[in-house]
Amino acid sequence: MNQDTLLSVEDKVISNALKIRFYPISVASAFGTRLMDAAGVSYLDLSAGWAVAGIGYGNPRIAHQLKQQYESLSFTSQLTIPEKNMVGLAQKLIEIMPGSFEKKVWFGHSGSDANDCVFKLLPLARNRSRMVSFMGSYHGQTMGSLSLSGHPAQAKFIGSGNVLKVPYPNPYRPPFGETTALTSQVIQYIENEVFRTVCPPEDTAGLIVEGIQSDGGLVVPPDDFLPELQKLCQRYQISLIFDEVKVGMGRTGKWFSFDHFDLTPDAVVLGKSLGAGLPISAVVARKELLDTGSGVHMFTASGNPICSMAAWENIAILEEERLIENAAENGAYFLQMLGELQQKYEWIGDVRGRGLAIGVELVENRSTKAPAAEKTAAVCYRCFELGLIVFYVGIHSNVIEITPPLTISKQEIDLAVSILDQAFKDLESNSIDMEKVKQYAGW
């Protein structure tokens, strides 16, 4: 089946509720940082499949382990009859998490069900009914995780009323107006307004935060924000939860985004790249937060031997092949190159990131910062035509998301920047077919 036929059939048989499309492509194979379509065209991938393929595609070590595991034990429901892979993986996750307190691990299939775990178990464990999260956050698509989320993608649904959402400290678009005291503004707003009116701290079980807001636009908060947020939670004995689904597992140049600030969360949520392409998620948390009852949040295939093996080997690859160090080094290089590109095009309002979690925000002009959503879609579409896979995100749909496999090289970064440069040139000369672009809604 050729690509055009496949896409036509797919359009007829696959639910639109399951789609975010930026251009017409289907994938036949992938290896390393490259995707190959049905016609044999190769693309450099800056998406890693929404940050899932952290160690790249088709890693031979993972393939070998999966084959052996399937032949020896293809499945057991760990809920009732456990085996060693899930237990060993849990031990390893506990080992790499900070904190001298006793921890346990919960396993699921995706970031959504893992954040649902937090949504359900924390109020139960703390005997406090309320939760706090941030506007712009994206925690998942199940009802509990979307209740925690503050992203337009979930705004059509009415989530649970026990979640209070507060502004995230976006340095490029400060929620309270231009300021040099963004962190203190947000912290004071939570403490002096939210806690004193609609969300009493003594009734608040937890606060969940992304160290870098991912689908919200790769927003990097001020360096003092996360440490001050932890102090706030400690003052009121509120559990601090980090959603590391997208930026964890080495992407920022350390294991987790909070590691840049020597913080100790009460719970950490993992997903996406944890399984090297296989569906597995986890919550690593204080023992008392997860031991709230027997069988209160479980899925038959959670922590199955295949996915657990993939995650365990994935962690070994990250360590042994020094991919976290590569993310730090090459991420800094990527940011430098994008900063140079920013000097050439007025549409690039902001370049930000940490490690290989990078956002490029497009605006109509730098004075008003009016979001340039259509131009962002056009640049991503043109990059696809030129052989580069890149998506856009953000609450205004105007941030190019750069989350490549952590194996990306400087040579590949140079190629990616040259393609982005050409796409901006083509946008400048009005040579991008906007009618084609408009066929694909993206977010």
TrEMBL record:
Q: Which named protein is this?
A: Aminotransferase class III
Any signal peptide, and if so, which residues?
none
Q: Which UniProt keywords apply?
A: Aminotransferase, Pyridoxal phosphate, Transferase
Is Transferase among this UniProt entry's keywords? yes
Q: Which InterPro entries match?
A: Aminotrans_3, Aminotrans_3_PPA_site, PyrdxlP-dep_Trfase, PyrdxlP-dep_Trfase_major, PyrdxlP-dep_Trfase_small
- For whether the record's keyword set contains Transferase, the answer is yes
Report the coiled-coil segments.
Answer: none
Q: What SUPFAM superfamilies does the annotation carry? A: PLP-dependent transferases (SSF53383)
Short name of one Pfam family: Aminotran_3
Q: Which Gene3D superfamilies match?
A: Aspartate Aminotransferase, domain 1 (3.90.1150.10), Type I PLP-dependent aspartate aminotransferase-like (Major domain) (3.40.640.10)
**What PANTHER family has UniProt attached to this entry?**
ALANINE--GLYOXYLATE AMINOTRANSFERASE 2-LIKE, PTHR45688
Q: Which GO terms describe its molecular function?
A: pyridoxal phosphate binding; transaminase activity
| Recorded family membership | Belongs to the class-III pyridoxal-phosphate-dependent aminotransferase family.
What is the organism field in this record? Brevibacillus reuszeri
